[in-house]
Backbone:
């Protein structure tokens, strides 16, 4: 019988790539969607016709119990979150509720539906439903060592990072308290043509396309010196799946081990369209964050050795892929007007 997976955050970047990957592996896949008439649900339904949907919200305990009970999943991937870091200074309580307490709610739903009522004190994780939590390199925050591995201490620099640290520890705690097979992937930044327009790589690739077509001239950015370890989302969802196929539940760092600055990202993206980034990029101090994560780089040695996972897409290739996709889309929208507007991911 085919395995059943439930994915929260199905309308986001990673949700769609993970669903495609699991369907290709022969899974039946349900995506949790929230709200009435969520336009992002229609978009992902069109992209992935084999996907099924179930209603629910990480803010609503009862809805998660119902969703888990209805789907009876073998694996739950909790990708749902308010994922844009600056939002977490504007709405810290909301972000804590969704990204932190939301993880607890999903673990409680799994515990209730699986009948894992009592604390076992065990640490091997033999619950029936396997659980993946989308932890983040933002938990490392202020860097105490580089590169960062599973042993590096956390020092989050945003309410987002703090909430993710709670989600990380509560997953560990349910593993140790109830034997839930719960793992966290500490994923470093990963991007794609489906990345939200608010994140810096996509903001750049979208602007490059508009500038190339003469529809825009300037691109406002914040801290050009920030350094990230950027990979391709399509590669990273393979690691999520592999983590839930292991005999033992444990957490893994996932990244590429390579560092680039925001300035590099801009240069590579503009070059991909034969443009000079320095003629178009303007630094806007309003976009600099109250507390910045200056530099991140993954030591993903454990994932390589134990999961057999390697990233396949390099940073230059990734930025070019995003620029090409946005150029194609912008060209179609220009030539076909309103009809195609918003049709891009
Ligand atoms: P996106 O921002 O693209 O997607 C976020 C998803 O969360 C959307 O589907 C959104 O659904 C959903 N969501 C928001 N609020 C709720 C809620 N209250 N209940 C249920 N679902 C909700 O994120 P990514 O795909 O990029 O990231 C996936 C996960 O991985 C996130 O948890 C993110 O924090 C984490 N992560 C991401 C990294 C990256 O570089 N991409 C790196 C490390 C971690 P809706 O359409 O309803 O708004
Ligand atoms: P990040 O991604 O905060 O690392 O979180 P983002 O792309 O937003 O920022 C990366 C770096 O670029 C700098 N930057 C800008 N960022 C944005 N968004 N817009 C700008 O104009 C700009 N100029 C400079 C930022 O200051 C930052 O240093 C992402 C999200 O996917 C999280 O959910 C995830 O947990 C982490 O990656 C790992």
Residues:
């Amino acid at each position: 019988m085919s395995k059943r997976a439930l994915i929260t955050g199905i309308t986001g970047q990673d949700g769609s790539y993970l669903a495609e990957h699991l369907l290709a592996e022969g899974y039946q896949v349900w995506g949790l969607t929230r709200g009435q008439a969520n336009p992002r649900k229609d978009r992902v339904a069109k992209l992935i016709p084999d996907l099924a949907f179930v209603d629910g919200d990480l803010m609503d305990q009862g809805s998660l119990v119902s969703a888990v009970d209805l789907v009876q999943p073998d694996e739950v991937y909790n990708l749902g979150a308010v994922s844009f870091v600056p939002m977490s200074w504007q709405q810290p309580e909301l972000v804590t509720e969704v990204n932190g307490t939301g993880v607890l709610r999903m673990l409680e739903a799994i515990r209730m539906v699986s009948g894992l009522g009592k604390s076992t004190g065990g640490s091997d994780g033999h619950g029936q439903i396997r659980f993946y939590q989308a932890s983040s390199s933002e938990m490392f925050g202020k860097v105490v060592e580089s590169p960062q591995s599973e042993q590096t201490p956390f020092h989050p620099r945003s309410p987002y990072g703090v909430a993710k640290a709670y989600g990380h520890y509560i997953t560990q705690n349910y593993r140790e308290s109830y034997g839930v097979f719960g793992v966290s992937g500490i994923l470093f930044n990963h991007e794609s043509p489906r990345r939200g327009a608010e994140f810096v790589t996509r903001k750049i690739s979208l602007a490059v396309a508009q500038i190339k077509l003469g529809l825009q001239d300037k691109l406002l950015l914040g801290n050009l010196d920030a350094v990230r370890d950027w990979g391709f989302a399509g590669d990273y969802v393979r690691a999520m799946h592999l983590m839930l196929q292991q005999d033992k539940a444990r957490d893994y760092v996932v990244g590429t081990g390579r560092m680039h600055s925001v300035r590099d990202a801009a240069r590579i993206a503009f070059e991909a369209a034969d443009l000079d980034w320095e003629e178009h990029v303007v630094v806007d101090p309003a976009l600099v964050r109250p507390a910045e994560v200056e530099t991140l780089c993954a030591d993903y040695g454990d994932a390589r050795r134990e999961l057999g996972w390697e990233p396949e897409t390099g940073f230059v290739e990734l930025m070019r892929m995003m620029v090409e996709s946005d150029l194609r889309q912008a060209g179609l929208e220009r030539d076909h007007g309103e009809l195609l507007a918003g049709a891009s991911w």
